[in-house]
Each structure stands twice: as structure tokens, then as C-alpha cells.
Design brief:
Blueprint (H helix, E strand, L loop, with lengths): L2 H4 L7 H5 L4 H14 L9 H13 L5 H4 L2 H14 L1 H5 L6 H12 L4 H9 L3 H8 L5 H15 L5 H5 L3 H22 L7 H8 L5 H27 L5 H4 L2 H4 L16 H11 L1 H9 L3 H10 L5 H13 L4 H15 L4 E2 L2 E2 L1 H14 L10 H21 L3 H23 L3 H14 L5 H17 L3 H14 L7 H13 L3 H17 L3 H4 L7 H13 L4 H7 L2 E2 L7 E2 L13 H7 L7 E2 L9 H4 L4 H7 L4 E2 L3
Antiparallel strand pairs: 1-2, 3-4, 5-6
Helix pairs in contact: 4-8, 6-8, 6-10, 8-11, 10-11, 11-15, 13-15, 13-33, 15-18, 18-19, 18-21, 20-21, 20-22, 21-22, 21-23, 22-23, 22-24, 22-28, 23-24, 25-26, 26-27, 27-28, 27-29, 28-29, 29-30, 30-32
Length: 626
Amino acid sequence: MDKASADCPYPGCFFCVMKEGNPSKRRASILKFFRELPSQDDDGQVLPISGLWNTAMAHPNDPEFIELGIFECMSALIWKGLKNRRWLSHDQNIYIPYYAAHIIGSYTMNMEEFAERAVRAGIIPPLVELLRGRLTWVEQRVAVRALGHLATYASTFPAVSSQGEILELSIQLAMSSLEIVYSHFYQYVDRRLSYHCDLLTRGMGGVEMESRKAEEWASQLQCWSLQLINCFSFKPEFLPTICKPEFLTKLPGMWGGLVNENSPAGIGLLRTICHHKLGRGPVAACPGIIEALCNIARSSDDWQYMAIDCILWLLQDPNTSHKVIEKAVPALVDLAEISSLGDHKKLGDSIVNVLQECIESQGTGRTQINSHVKEEVEELLNSKQRLKWEKNMPKEDLHIKQAAALVVKLEGNSLFSSGNISGAAAKYSEALALCPMRSKKERVVLYSNRAQCHLLLQQPLAAIGDATRALSLHNPVNRHAKSHWRRAQAYDMLGLAKESLLDAILFINECSQSNDPDLSLRKNKVPDYAERFVKKQMRAAWLFREAAIKHGGVQCEGDAGDMCGQETDDSEWETASESEIGNEERDEIGDDICGWENEVERKDKYKKASIKEINHGYNVQLTEDV
């Protein structure tokens, strides 16, 4: 540490140590630095710690600092912050426990041998103290992250699980994290701790940026808590603690939000729980959880297959099948023609096989299927038989069936245009019965058209079912814009804001990528009414909404005049007006009924208007399918 340290006013400066050219001297100096840092009370200690934080994020697999005692140093610094509040409040030391826990989490993220070294260094007890909330939610976030990494490895999980309170603390944190961050930070701008603001924005933003980052960190706090619980859920002995009704019923609603969409969150944990026999019983017994699983199974996000797995396992288990079958079967029937989801191949075939087993097992045990559910399954099985028969039919006969289906569909379109919505729906059903099973594109249009009829007839559940069938049939899967839009409106009618929001966003994505000639002429391919609809649903599905309602609400950044968490006049978010549709949404006559405009009025207006009036008010036309 010669020349580099000669001009530095701080003896033993970490940054000077890092410039040392002699490798052996450098290692000896770093080792000394890590040993002595926790016992020092000099100002400016946060600077080398923040430097180590950057290094850990940039090079988490580098063993140098691990071998020289960084875990022991970080553990001692967290203990110092917990035990010595005078030191913690001095200078900028308040940042140090956060950085220390974050460094531990980064270095244990990928390497099991690093995690083993961390456990031997004694880092679990101070992390547990942070998890308890001995400091603030900011430190809880990085503590649960680090413990989650340690719990993923077989060699270090026993050390984590031996701390009995970790699981209970994680469950409580998963349930309360959003309210904690809202009430302790988001709600009152003038009460925000300055070091929280600095950590959230790195000094690069104002109040609006702080609020956005707080929502992201709150979601991470919840999702990382769920990840830690998920590690415990692989062990049967921990399932009784996890499978409490008050926790299970909340899991489907823990979804990470738009700010953390890459996390499987609650549905990922539910899948692990349902994979084990001991977990399926409590899940099946929870009121409302099967409906939530069915909604997720019908969704088009990355975690759709997880909900499908849960439902299939529950149906295959004779101890739970009778509890879930009536609610689960309709959703699975809608999904039975899905080909694959990412790496999950022949998913539709798996669904059909399980449903067939349910029918065959009827009467042999506790599984009893009501007549309506049985008819749905038998209709599905008959359609599969139809597909086999059609493979042996002459092409001429198939062409005749397809032509007949087209004629009936056009009759349905004509009835729809004249305002006979029930008649149109019946014609689309007749066309589906005629249409060859392999004519998937035509069947997509028919299901989507019938979904629109169900919307206008105020039958949102039926609309969701048909839109889901269209999306399952479509190639590529879940990429039919109009079906997303229709299902978004149906979910909105049921008050399911999150599901409606996700479909509306997928609709907008499809619009932005569409080659439709009517859309390509626009400067902005995304219709204005869709943008308004998404804003409305974002407000309703806001991550902090429940907390805001509980604590009295707070003005949302970016939506001036709108109070999140409080009932407001939503006339601003009404569907597209007649004039807008007349000016912007005129489409040529074609196969699919109107889909680019927002055809459905709000629920309260539905009750006051006849079908004919609704059709007139929304200028319903026939339009080429996309």
C-alpha cells in the first residue's frame, strides 16, 4: 500500500487496498480490513461497504472476498447496528446493515459453497433479527432475500430451518408486506426516512420515483418471502404450518403486480403445496381458492401452467377430487384444446385424460359429478372422437361440412347485425357443431363471436369460457387479440380487475404488433379506449389498493385528482363513445363481429338499456378477423 495510499487521508483505506499491485500484500490487507472494520468507529465507513455492495452485485461468483472473511465482517456489522444504536445513528452508518445483508444475499445467490461458508460464519442469527423487523422494512427485504438463497441449497437448508421462527416470520411478512410498506413509507410523503428514499432511487429521482420504487420493493418483499416459504414447503413436516386457511386463501392474490411480473409468487407456492398429498387437502378445503385457481388457469401469463397443474393434481387425488370437481371441470374443458405452453407439451391431452378418468371413476368412490358437468365432459370427449372420425373422412365431405358451417356463421353475423343476439349465439353454436375439428382458425372466430354475444347478453362467465377456448385453439396459443379484449370486458363485469387488466394489456400488445390494414393506417395502433380501460384496471388492481382502503387512501402519483383506494367517479374511464367509434373504428364487413371497439357498456348501464339500444350505441358491425 505504498504509493496508492500515500495521498489518501484514511489509513487502511479499502479503495487504496484494492489498488495494491502485489497480490500477496493485497490479500493480506483485505483480510486485515475485514477483521478490523467492525470494531472501528471512524466516519465514512459506508463508502467501502457500498463499494463492496457494487462488487458483490457485479461479481457474485468471485471467491476472493469469501475466502478473506467478508461474511464474518458483514455479520459483525449487522450485529453492531442492532446492538449499538448510537453508532447506527452516527454519520451514514444507518445504511450499513442494509448493504451488509444485501452483500450476503448477492454472494450466496449462485454458489452453494459460498452459502456454506456464510452459514459457518454465523450470518443466519443476525439476518433473523432483521427479518423480525428490528430495524425497518428495507432491511427485512434484503434479509428475506439472503435467507431465501440459503434455503434453496440442500446443504444449508437445515441451518435455516433449525431457526424455527423463520417460517412463521416469512408467512406473516408475505401477508403484511404491502400494508407495511404502504403505511410506513408510501402513504405519507413528508414522513419518509431520507435513507429509505436514497436507497430506493440512488439519488436519481423525486417523490414520484420513490413511490414507484416503493411499489416494486414491496412486491419483492412479498415475493421473496414466498420464495423462502416455498423452500420449506418441499418438506412435508412444514406443510401444517404453511397450510393455514388464513394464509392459503390469500395466496392466489399474491401475484407480484406489473412491477414484478417475473415472479411466480403465490401460484408458485400453491403448486408446490398441491404437489404433495398433505397439501392438497387444505387447499381443496379453502373457500374461494378453486375459483381463483380456475381464473389463473384461464389466464395467458407465464404461470398459467402452474394453476393447471394444481387443478389436475387436485382432481387426480381421490381425497380432494369430490371437493373441487364441479368448479374445476368447466375451466379445464375450456382449456382442453390447448396444445402446449412453452416447454409444457401436450397439455390439452393431459387435461382430457384427467377429465376422462373423472367420468370413469364416477360412482366408484366419493367423486360425484352433477349432470351439467358430466354433459360438458362428455361433449368434450365426443369432440375428440369426432376428430378421429374426421381423419378417415373424404376431403370432399370435410369441405362440405366447412362450407355449411360458413353459411350458418354468416346467418349468425346477420342476426347479430340486426340486434338478435340470442339468435346469433345459437347460430354460432350450430356452426361449431358443423365445423370440422381440424379447422381451428374458423373455430377460433366462432368461439370469439359467441363470446361477444354472451357479453351483450350479460353472461360474463360464458363469455370467459368461449374467449378462453378461442385463445387455446389459436396458433400461436393465447395470441388472439379480440378474444383477449372480450375476456377483459367479461372479467370487468365480474369485478376481477387483475384478470381484466392482464387481458387488456395482452390485447394492447397484439394491437401494437398487428398487421391489420385498418390498424396500420393509424399513427398509434393502440386504440384510445383500450388505453383508458387499462388505466381504469390498473387503478382497481393497484398493488397497494387494499392497504390504501384500510388506511384511508392517498393520492396516486401520475393520476392527478384521482384518489387510489377510495371510491371515485369513473365517468372518465367509460367505454368508447359512439362518436369515437364512428370516427376511428369503422371496419369492413368480414368474418368476425366487431372487436376493435369497446362494445360493452358499464354494468350499471347494461341494466337500463335493451340489447338493441346497446348495439346501436356501440355501432356494432361485422369486421374482418385478425
